[in-house]
């Protein structure tokens, strides 16, 4: 019989993508689906859940609070979005304004950094 503790340890070291590939390989070899009824889900265990997790590729930059330097925050919003002064001011004053939507993680983090440096409270979602 296989050493179950050793198998569990090896599976714990897999990345999400490797676990998803493992699930696909087992589905093909055994002729089953990870979306099978509950009884089969108990056999598949956590690997079935891993397959459903997709890595997020698009992010939104959400302004929670313009902070004490509202003018600086408005300037940064204008730089990031090319909005006019009135539109940028309205965005800074509105609660939970989406400054940028559907951008890469790197661009979202860069925008967040600039807004935080201006004194704003920002969330990347």
Largest sheet: 3 strands, antiparallel
Question: Alpha-carbon distance between the termini?
Answer: 46 Å
* CATH class identity of the largest domain: Alpha Beta
Number of strands: 3
The helix-strand sequence is HHHHEHHEHE
Give the total of domains.
Answer: 2
Based on the structure, what is the oligomeric state of the protein chains?
Answer: single chain
Approximate helicity band: 55-70%
Q: Judging by the overall fold, what is the CATH architecture of the largest domain?
A: 2-Layer Sandwich
Strand order of the largest sheet: 2-1-3
Which secondary-structure class do the elements indicate?
Answer: alpha+beta
CATH-defined topology of the largest domain: Ribosomal Protein L30, Chain: A
Contiguous runs where pLDDT drops below 50 for at least 5 residues? none
Task: Describe what you observe in this structure.
This protein is an alpha+beta fold. The protein folds into two domains: 4-52, no CATH class; 59-124, Ribosomal Protein L30, Chain: A (2-Layer Sandwich), CATH 3.30.1390. 58% of the residues lie in helices and 14% in strands. It is built from seven helices and three strands. The protein has helices at 4-12, 16-30, 38-44, 46-52, 70-81, 85-93, 105-117; strands spanning 59-65, 97-103, 121-124. It has a three-stranded antiparallel β-sheet, covered by helices on one side. Helix 5 (70-81) crosses helix 6 (85-93). The longest helix has 15 residues, at 16-30. The N and C termini lie far apart (46 Å). The model has no long low-confidence stretch (mean pLDDT 82).
